């Protein structure tokens, strides 16, 4: 039975999420503060965390950072604010998806299922990929350049895998959002550009390069120039 931790200072949101998720066979627990979220995440070991950004003690961004520093557990962020900046920041620091309040509880269930499905599919991957001097051990989530470890955040790693598995192919920003973040993001796609820039810096010297295809997106090549 998949375990879901719901973190929200509104008890009615927690109860609504529990009602719909438990109908689908999930085990759901809820907390209303950031401190309780960190404590519960450590003891409960949830399969996914539904995390509100606006909490009374520690904001959701900081909770996400602290969880992500220790765990790859999927995180679905909830936000009452519709600014793209909040969504982009959440994705950049490690959230896997987001949902804007007010939301349809059926959409919440659908997104939880989709995030868990992607996460479980990634766990089953057994391949290692080599591009130039870059070696990507997918099941171990490890990257090295000539045996020297490269530290990547979760989404940077997922983005690298997407490029490496589609070597030489042009990937639109929308396609990358779908592959890495798992949803169609209508509007600003700057989060992809930010992650690509970070990734370029970290794999510099590996022989693998991410080229910009003007007006379209990006592609990974061995050698070449940006």
Describe the structure.
- By secondary structure, this protein is an alpha/beta fold.
- The protein is 43% helix and 23% strand.
- The strands form 3 sheets. It has a 5-stranded parallel sheet with strand order 2-1-3-4-5, sandwiched between helices. Strands 6-7-8-9 form a 4-stranded antiparallel sheet, with helices on one face.
- Helix 2 packs parallel to helix 3.
- The longest helix has 20 residues.
- The termini are far apart.
Q: How does the overall form come out from the CA principal axes?
A: elongated
As residue ranges, the low-confidence spans are: none
- Total discrete domains: 2
The strands making up the biggest β-sheet line up spatially as: 2-1-3-4-5
The structural class is alpha/beta
CATH superfamily of the largest domain: Response regulator
Q: Taking Cα atoms only, what radius of gyration do you get, to the nearest Å?
A: 18 Å
Strand content: 15-25%
- CATH 2nd-level architecture of the largest domain: 3-Layer(aba) Sandwich
Count of DSSP strands: 12
Distance between the termini: 47 Å
Short description:
Helix content is about 45%, strand content about 25%. With about 230 residues, it is an alpha/beta fold.
């Amino acid at each position: 039975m998949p375990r879901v931790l719901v973190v929200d200072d509104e008890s009615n949101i927690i109860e609504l999420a529990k009602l719909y998720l438990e109908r689908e066979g999930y085990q759901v627990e809820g907390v209303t503060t950031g401190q309780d979220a960190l404590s519960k995440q450590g003891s409960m070991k949830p399969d996914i965390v539904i995390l509100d950004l606006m909490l009374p003690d520690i904001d959701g961004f900081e909770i996400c950072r602290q969880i992500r520093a220790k765990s790859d557990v999927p995180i679905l962020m909830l936000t009452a604010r519709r600014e793209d900046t909040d969504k982009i920041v959440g994705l950049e620091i490690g959230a896997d998806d987001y949902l804007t309040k007010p939301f349809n509880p059926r959409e919440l269930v659908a997104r939880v299922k989709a995030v868990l499905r992607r996460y479980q599919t990634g766990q089953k991957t057994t391949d290692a990929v080599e591009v130039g001097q870059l070696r990507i051990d997918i099941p171990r989530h490890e990257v090295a350049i000539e045996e020297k470890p490269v530290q990547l955040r979760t989404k940077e790693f997922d983005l690298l895998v997407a490029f490496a598995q589609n070597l030489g192919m042009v990937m639109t920003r929308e396609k990358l959002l779908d592959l890495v973040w798992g949803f169609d993001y209508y509007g600003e796609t700057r989060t992809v550009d930010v992650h690509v820039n970070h990734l370029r810096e970290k794999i510099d010297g590996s022989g693998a390069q991410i080229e910009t295809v003007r007006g379209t997106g990006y592609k990974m090549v061995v050698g070449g120039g940006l």
